[in-house]
Fold this protein.
Amino acid sequence: MQRALVLGGGGPVGIAWESGLAAGLAEEGVAIADADLIIGTSAGSFVGAQLASGRSPQSLAEAQIAQGRREAAARAAGAGHPLGEAPDLQGLMGLMAKAPADGPPGEALLAEFGAYANAAQTISEDAFIAGFGWIAEDGTPFPAGYRCTAIDADTGAFRTWGAEDGVPLGRAIASSCSVPGIFPPIRINGRRYIDGGMRTPTNADLAAGHERVIVVAVTIMGPFADFMRRRMQWELDAITRAGGRVGLIIPDAEALEAFGVNLMDASRRAEVAAAGVAQGRREATRARGVWG
């Protein structure tokens, strides 16, 4: 039985929730880290790489809670947001509004995302990559059975990174997490790459061909929820058309309350991770029906 785990994007808040969710599911005996294939996009690329590297879901959740408490304390002490003033994402939202609801954007539109990213003033590549901690250190092995997504910032071509590509793991994850306008495009083999979530928030269609698939989607919420669900349906349909059974997990009401309004607000990590653990426990029975 071939199983795939798909982890979507969602900023620091998404990282915390996905980490907690995995821990809550594991507590109830649903080991999503045992997937034959783990596909990560943006926030999901960071969580997925850790799960694929053998880190326990509990340790991921504990790390997010501890980090969240530190960041919340720093904010309370007047340290400000780690990214500085909130970036103006009006241009990015305008590009997202061009995306079709019944399939992925074409390369021309994705290249527009790349141009927007290339023109933005952000932190340096080195500083961004270093923020991923141990997983970005030189020599950290690229885990087998793991892939993350990115987009060529100049051509709009979509691609995935896997162990066979010989790319440093930290640089691959950073490219998948490079939200245009917030983080820098990442140079890999002489080219620049941005967040794979600009294609779709999960890229779940990559799991087509696997028998059992769990898709974890962070960004199906708020005023764009209906649009995001329609946009994602073609991905889920690709899995079922190929004969797979798929289960979708999205934030429930309690998790959304913990999220707040800004997925980039890292100071909310602790409460979001705790909400993820609680939701994972509640989702376990349904997830087990898909996962086996």
Remarks:
- The chain has a mean pLDDT of 92.
